[in-house]
Amino acid sequence: MASTEHTHRYAELTWPEVAERVADDPVCVIPVATLEDHGYHLPIDTDAVIAETLAERAVLARPEQSLLLPTVTHGYTPHHMDFPGSITIDWKRFVEYLVDIGKSLIHHGFRRILFVNGHGSNVPLVDMAARLLMLERRDVIAATFWYLSTPESEELLARTRDSDQPGGMAHACELETSLYLAIHPERVQMEKAVREIPEWDSDTVWMDWNDGPLSIKGQWSGWTESGVIGDATVATAEKGRIWLDQAVLEVASHIDELAARRPRPGRDHHQGAEPALGTREGTQ
Ligand SMILES: [Zn+2]
Prior knowledge:
By secondary structure, this protein is an alpha/beta fold. The chain contains 8 helices and 7 strands, in the order H-H-E-H-E-H-E-H-E-H-E-H-E-E-H.
């Protein structure tokens, strides 16, 4: 095999190299994002840059166990269309597109798929795609997660953030701006950063890195004038590096989990049912 420098990116392999990597049973890591407004100060590609950076750094930390797929740049964001630049994909088409990518990988023999999603409103749809892929073949393991949401990450954010909670870390906020500053500081126009946090007027409806218990979304422009929900003015590259390192650790640990995980194919209890596909002798 060639050096990992040239082999961690799936799209840069030749087809015989892809066939060779299938034998390692690696985790296919797929960044997923969307293009949408991120305030006056951040590029519209913020979710894509963050998702791809997390995924690539984690794959580089686990070169034997994983492969980086090209980023799925466009996602589900119809509620951001009041802001110039946003591109949205119909929710069902988006799920089907993700499933088609996964089915193609499965066709070539890959069995482990991890979606690294950088856009909050993609969450239920990426989760649905992962679930559908596991129904596609019983020996497939597909998963997704919301980054910086493990108990350790939540504790770290609570301890190191400067913005108000809840509200300071929802969108184009202290967190996303800090991450972008840690990745591409030259693209962030900090002099245009604002603090904009809606009056929640509720104990159950609010947005932060993890939202309040009652989910009410609607048009994004109904919540914010700038597109920001949070406090971008307190973002720093230093905090961004700390949070980025933690998020990469999270992704790498999810790769470890998927790489080690045994499929749970289940068994069809109907009389005369065929043994489960893709399992040794059709048993668990
Ligand atoms: Zn974002």
